[in-house]
């Protein structure tokens, strides 16, 4: 582990580096990665030959646009051509996607990259947000109960640093709440929908979780109403994280909540519409390039999420640029009878502006029907239902029937994740130019 000390030192330095130094580092990393894929990854080598380009053609960060955008379909169709042919994959680590887009996917990482992405970059961000060494943390994950029981018993650092407890989100919620109260962590990490359930229990039992200081959410879109409810129930600060199986942690919120700081010494984040960069604050498809992974490098990979880039600099002291993921994957949209698509990004504000809503889910069940499942704080059924229907009638141009259903709870998907918008009638494609929005979401 001693060989990682220079990595840790440099990572800490990068987060506050002058912009010029950071961009120089990013260009150096990109050029090394370009050389790697040209020499060792068959798919990209063939792409270079087809386009008649060589690694020396990449002299600036913008030269990355010389390469085409790739998708999961490209990887699936080309199999092993995306793997580094000089690396033994059996010695690599891998992560398996839960398939929230309906496209299961396995990503491989060399040892050094795995440690950076799985542990070091996450710890860097958590400490920047105020977590302190020696504080306890509960990690809520989508692995099975049995898997986490084994993990807790064999956790490598547990004997030296007994401060991490892994809990499955598939465990009984009452049992989870009891474990958390016994462990008394200062920090918790997991999906917002599960924290909502814990917050409801804390409120019902009138338990003051005084020990808890910070909650870090990931894996799902964090609805503003859900965040407010959780903050109120636990009296804590919340920080949302944007990431993926393929790249691990991509971006994270600091205490200012002005957007999400991109881990720019790990990935390059582009926001594109019709394969062209969008204007500042404009919604587009998120395209990511991995600067570190040499075993299974993904270059200009369309991750099927949408978001915006934020040009303004945050005054928190972090040098990393800001982005804002939208309210769901680009595959989540409502299809109107006239052919227009409404993305989750466009639908959120029509619901979140209504007071009293704790959680919601918009489901399209047929071509002319939207069902809105909601959990309300005060159950003002008539007023809330009328307002939701009115707002959605405006945004859908009156072309859809809207039914509001009040729920005690809203089920997550089989993989344990929660979807704000669900289209149950199609296998949607990525967003198109009709789905553009030039307006940023309010700070969470």
Q: Overview of this structure, please?
A:
- With 444 residues, the chain is of the alpha/beta class.
- Among the domains are: 2-116 and 243-328, ANL, N-terminal domain (Rossmann fold, 3-Layer(aba) Sandwich); 332-428, 2-Layer Sandwich (GMP Synthetase, Chain A, domain 3).
- The chain has 11 helices and 20 strands.
- The protein has helices at residues 5-14, 19-40, 42-51, 72-78, 111-128, 145-154, 173-183, 192-205, 224-234, 344-352, 381-395; strands at residues 93-96, 106-109, 137-141, 164-168, 187-190, 214-217, 237-244, 248-252, 260-262, 267-273, 276-277, 284-290, 301-310, 322-329, 333-335, 341-343, 357-366, 369-376, 401-406, 421-423.
- Strands 4-3-5-6-7-8-9-14-13-12-10-11 form a 12-stranded mixed sheet, with helices on both faces.
- Strand 17 (357-366) and strand 18 (369-376) form a beta hairpin.
- Helix 7 packs across helix 8, helix 8 (192-205) crosses helix 9 and helix 10 (344-352) packs antiparallel against helix 11.
- The longest helix has 22 residues, at 19-40.
- It is globular.
- It starts with a helix and ends in a 21-residue tail after the last strand.
- Mean pLDDT is 86; it is low at 98-103 and 427-444.
